[in-house]
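Input (structure):
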Protein backbone atom coordinates (compact mmCIF):
# COMPACT_ATOMS: atom_id res chain seq x y z
CA UNK A 1 0.00 0.00 0.00
CA UNK A 2 1.19 3.46 -0.83
CA UNK A 3 1.32 6.11 1.88
CA UNK A 4 0.50 8.89 -0.63
CA UNK A 5 -3.02 9.79 -1.57
CA UNK A 6 -4.13 8.94 -5.08
CA UNK A 7 -4.30 11.93 -7.41
CA UNK A 8 -7.90 12.38 -8.55
CA UNK A 9 -6.99 14.07 -11.84
CA UNK A 10 -4.37 11.52 -12.83
CA UNK A 11 -1.87 14.35 -13.49
CA UNK A 12 1.66 13.62 -12.34
CA UNK A 13 4.15 16.52 -12.32
CA UNK A 14 7.04 14.05 -12.10
CA UNK A 15 5.94 12.23 -15.27
CA UNK A 16 5.53 15.55 -17.07
CA UNK A 17 9.02 16.71 -16.07
CA UNK A 18 10.54 13.39 -17.13
CA UNK A 19 8.77 13.49 -20.50
CA UNK A 20 9.66 17.12 -21.14
CA UNK A 21 13.40 16.73 -20.50
CA UNK A 22 15.72 19.69 -20.84
CA UNK A 23 14.82 22.41 -23.35
CA UNK A 24 17.09 22.58 -26.38
CA UNK A 25 17.56 26.34 -26.05
CA UNK A 26 16.48 28.43 -23.11
CA UNK A 27 15.34 31.82 -24.41
CA UNK A 28 15.93 33.42 -21.00
CA UNK A 29 19.43 32.04 -20.40
CA UNK A 30 21.13 35.17 -21.71
CA UNK A 31 18.97 37.40 -19.52
CA UNK A 32 19.71 35.34 -16.41
CA UNK A 33 23.46 34.87 -16.98
CA UNK A 34 24.46 38.36 -15.81
CA UNK A 35 23.04 37.70 -12.35
CA UNK A 36 25.67 35.08 -11.54
CA UNK A 37 28.80 36.51 -13.13
CA UNK A 38 31.17 39.42 -12.69
CA UNK A 39 30.36 41.82 -9.86
CA UNK A 40 27.15 39.94 -9.05
CA UNK A 41 28.70 36.65 -7.93
CA UNK A 42 27.81 35.50 -4.42
CA UNK A 43 31.19 36.45 -2.99
CA UNK A 44 31.12 39.92 -4.49
CA UNK A 45 27.58 40.58 -3.30
CA UNK A 46 28.39 39.78 0.34
CA UNK A 47 31.81 41.40 0.32
CA UNK A 48 30.27 44.86 0.62
CA UNK A 49 27.61 43.85 3.16
CA UNK A 50 29.61 45.11 6.16
CA UNK A 51 31.71 48.10 5.08
CA UNK A 52 34.44 48.97 7.55
CA UNK A 53 34.13 45.70 9.44
CA UNK A 54 37.70 44.64 8.58
CA UNK A 55 39.15 47.95 9.73
CA UNK A 56 37.14 47.76 12.95
CA UNK A 57 38.39 44.25 13.70
CA UNK A 58 42.02 45.29 13.18
CA UNK A 59 41.57 48.41 15.34
CA UNK A 60 39.91 46.43 18.12
CA UNK A 61 42.62 43.76 18.03
CA UNK A 62 45.28 46.48 18.17
CA UNK A 63 43.62 48.05 21.18
CA UNK A 64 43.39 44.68 22.94
CA UNK A 65 47.11 44.08 22.38
CA UNK A 66 47.90 47.60 23.62
CA UNK A 67 45.78 47.04 26.72
CA UNK A 68 47.39 43.70 27.52
CA UNK A 69 50.95 44.94 26.98
CA UNK A 70 50.91 48.46 28.39
CA UNK A 71 47.90 48.79 30.69
CA UNK A 72 47.71 45.33 32.25
CA UNK A 73 50.85 45.70 34.39
CA UNK A 74 49.73 49.12 35.67
CA UNK A 75 46.38 47.72 36.81
CA UNK A 76 47.98 44.70 38.44
CA UNK A 77 50.32 46.78 40.64
CA UNK A 78 47.49 48.97 41.89
CA UNK A 79 45.33 45.96 42.64
CA UNK A 80 48.11 44.20 44.58
CA UNK A 81 48.88 47.36 46.61
CA UNK A 82 45.21 47.83 47.49
CA UNK A 83 44.99 44.28 48.83
CA UNK A 84 47.90 44.75 51.26
CA UNK A 85 46.53 47.93 52.82
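Output (sequence):
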Amino acid sequence: MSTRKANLTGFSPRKLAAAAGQPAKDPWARNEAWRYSGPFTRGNRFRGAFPGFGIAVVAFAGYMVYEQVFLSSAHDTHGAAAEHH
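Notes: The chain has a mean pLDDT of 79. The first helix runs from residue 13 to 20.
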